[in-house]
């Protein structure tokens, strides 16, 4: 488990580490905590200048500290070597962050393009169907939508909802009867 780092105290613009609680940590763990506390503000500055949105900088620092924690046995002895090693890890975390951002952007664009071509069932304006579905219990409604709109079989959809195959078939049959009766009332 990664150590919990106290917030640094700030005095006259300088950052100084908070008192260290070492009652249950080993020497390696204590050395890591001291090093991480000293490096965290510099790492945060590194990421703040490089990520957008800037709020993601804290996540990048956390990821960097996690990687450093996992490799704490390899922590260099001198402060300068620790700093260089930590920034090397931060560079890798930044590269992963940027690749992930590109992948998420491409996926979002693909989803947007698909939604423009095929409107979702809720956007098709089929008032009777939506009204009938709203009359079902939540779990039955979800079962019907998984089967009809998402293309799952009855057994698969039931498993997704934590239902046995028999219970899924029974609920689906009952939901279809309810939907049919509700649609007939609305139409005629």
Percent helix: 55-70%
Describe the largest sheet: 2 strands, antiparallel
* Beta-strand content estimate: under 5%
Q: Evaluate the radius of gyration.
A: 27 Å
Write a short abstract of this structure.
The chain is mostly helical and 188 residues long. It has helices at 27-48, 56-70, 79-117, 127-134, 138-148, 154-160, 165-187, and strands at residues 9-11, 14-16. 17% of the residues are buried.
Word description of this protein:
Helix content is 66%, strand content 3%. The protein has 7 helices and 2 strands. The chain has 188 residues and is mostly helical. It is elongated and about 80 Å long. Mean pLDDT is 80; it is low at 5-25. The protein has a two-stranded antiparallel ribbon with strand order 1-2. A hairpin with a 2-residue loop joins strand 1 and strand 2 (14-16).
Keywords:
188 residues; mainly alpha; two-stranded antiparallel ribbon; 66% helix; elongated
Itemize the secondary structure elements and their pairings.
Layout: E1 9-11, E2 14-16, H1 27-48, H2 56-70, H3 79-117, H4 127-134, H5 138-148, H6 154-160, H7 165-187
Helix pairs in contact: 1-2, 1-3, 2-3, 4-7, 5-7, 6-7
């Amino acid at each position: 488990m990664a150590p919990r780092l106290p917030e640094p105290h700030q005095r006259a613009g300088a950052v100084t580490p908070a008192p260290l609680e070492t009652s249950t940590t080993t020497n390696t763990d204590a050395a890591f905590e001291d090093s991480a506390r000293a490096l965290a503000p510099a790492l945060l500055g590194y990421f703040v200048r490089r990520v957008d949105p800037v709020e993601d900088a804290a996540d990048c620092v956390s990821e960097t500290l996690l990687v450093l924690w996992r490799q704490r046995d390899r922590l260099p002895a001198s402060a300068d070597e620790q700093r260089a090693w930590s920034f090397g890890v931060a560079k890798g975390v930044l590269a992963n962050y940027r690749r992930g951002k590109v992948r998420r952007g491409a996926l979002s664009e693909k989803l947007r393009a698909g939604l423009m071509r095929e409107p979702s069932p809720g956007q098709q304006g089929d008032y009777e169907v939506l009204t009938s579905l709203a009359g079902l219990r939540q779990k039955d409604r979800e079962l019907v939508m998984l089967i009809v709109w998402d293309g799952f079989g009855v057994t698969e959809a039931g498993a997704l909802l934590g239902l046995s195959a028999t219970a899924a078939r029974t609920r689906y049959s009952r939901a279809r009867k309810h939907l049919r009766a509700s649609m007939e009332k609305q139409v005629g």
